[in-house]
């Protein structure tokens, strides 16, 4: 692959890393304690990439000084802290967990000692270099697999959130594997080809973080906040029930309304015709037939009516103005943003965003 293209990919990944890091700590939508540590880990990764690239292409005292900072230790510690904050792990209450930042501080002190004592190029420099490489990789492996175990065993987060965090964890494991291959190639073959592979993978990783990962997780968090608020208010508020037409005498239809209004089954994005038929102890075909005969709607139309009403209530309530429209759609029971927008448009001839603005001005 052309050297210029590889350099461009590397620079692009660094810029993305810095952009995502700054966005996480300055944008109100993303701002949180957990994201502060995610920003620190991404900033460390981007800086580490930039410094290593500069060390290959630029000969400078400044670059040599920057190399003293072993940011791979900081990356691992910050990312581990991010994971335990996300799952609200009891470790956060123990101040000793902050000792995981000690390897980073120790490595900086050690490097400055070598620099000030003018020991670079001696046997001590070589020994410290190999020891820190081994320690860095071991430290990263230990923390990433420990955090993976904590994520799998956590009972304080939803399955959606666990799935995203485990996927992020897997990406980092792949990064560490490529990093190990890079170190082996560097020490045994004196080659840097895998370094470019590492930078390309890091670029893809940062793009995923930017366009899918962080935003999606924030929507999930907002959805959970909305849900918890509604649950806390549920006992105090009297739910609005639909009036059953006098002509609707079927026991199944009465039970169906009860399931929708008392158990809010429509909020399950995976709710299927089979699920409803099973709960009502009837067949799918008969359920579709009786809903069509007595309510003159299909099952999906009937369920989506409840979802739209729930979304409308949330969109017009000022309490939920700080939450994204996608999070509100998820809480109402829609599986995806596109499904929510399409159904809302078909029902009200306007987008959820336009409806929210209309409620603010009225």
From TrEMBL:
Record has Hydrolase as a keyword: no
Keywords per UniProt: DNA-binding, Membrane, Transcription, Transcription regulation, Transmembrane, Transmembrane helix
Keyword Magnesium: no
Domain HTH araC/xylS-type residue range list: 254-358
PROSITE patterns: HTH_ARAC_FAMILY_1, HTH_ARAC_FAMILY_2
InterPro entries xrefs: Homeodomain-like_sf, HTH_AraC, HTH_AraC-typ_CS
Xref: Pfam families: HTH_18
Gene3D superfamilies reported in the protein's UniProt record: Homeodomain-like
Transmembrane segments: 6-25, 37-56, 62-84, 96-117, 164-181, 193-214
Protein name, per record: AraC family transcriptional regulator
Organism phylogeny: Bacteria, Pseudomonadati, Bacteroidota, Flavobacteriia, Flavobacteriales
């Amino acid at each position: 692959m052309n050297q210029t293209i590889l350099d461009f990919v590397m620079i692009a990944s660094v810029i993305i890393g810095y952009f995502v890091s700054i966005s996480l700590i300055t944008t109100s939508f993303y701002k949180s304690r957990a994201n502060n540590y995610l920003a620190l880990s991404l900033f460390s990764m981007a800086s580490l990439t930039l410094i290593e690239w500069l060390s290959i292409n630029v000969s400078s005292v400044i670059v040599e000084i920057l190399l003293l900072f072993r940011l791979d230790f900081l990356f691992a510690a910050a990312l581990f802290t991010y994971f335990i904050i996300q799952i609200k792990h009891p470790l956060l209450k123990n101040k000793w967990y902050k000792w995981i930042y000690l390897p980073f501080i120790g490595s900086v002190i050690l490097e400055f000692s070598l620099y000030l004592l003018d020991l670079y190029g001696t046997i001590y420099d070589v020994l410290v270099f190999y020891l820190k490489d081994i320690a860095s990789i071991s430290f990263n492996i230990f923390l990433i697999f420990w955090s993976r175990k904590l994520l799998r065993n956590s009972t304080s987060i939803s399955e959606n959130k666990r799935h995203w965090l485990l996927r992020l964890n897997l990406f980092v494991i792949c990064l560490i594997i490529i990093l190990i291959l890079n170190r082996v190639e560097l020490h045994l073959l004196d080659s840097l080809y895998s370094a470019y592979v590492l930078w390309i993978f890091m670029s893809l990783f940062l793009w995923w973080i930017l366009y899918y990962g962080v935003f999606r997780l924030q929507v999930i968090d907002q959805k959970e906040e909305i849900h918890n608020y509604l649950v806390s208010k549920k006992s105090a508020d009297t739910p609005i029930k639909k009036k059953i037409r006098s002509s609707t005498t079927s026991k199944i239809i009465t039970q169906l309304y009860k399931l929708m209004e008392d158990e809010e089954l429509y909020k399950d994005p995976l709710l299927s015709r089979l699920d409803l038929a099973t709960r009502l102890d009837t067949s799918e075909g008969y359920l579709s037939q009786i809903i069509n005969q007595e309510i003159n709607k299909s099952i999906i139309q009937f369920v989506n009516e409840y979802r739209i009403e729930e979304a409308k209530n949330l969109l017009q309530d000022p309490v939920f103005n700080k939450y994204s429209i996608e999070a509100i759609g998820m809480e109402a029971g829609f599986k995806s943003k596109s499904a929510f927008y399409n159904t809302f448009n078909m029902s009200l001839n306007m987008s959820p965003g336009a409806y929210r603005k209309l409620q603010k001005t009225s």
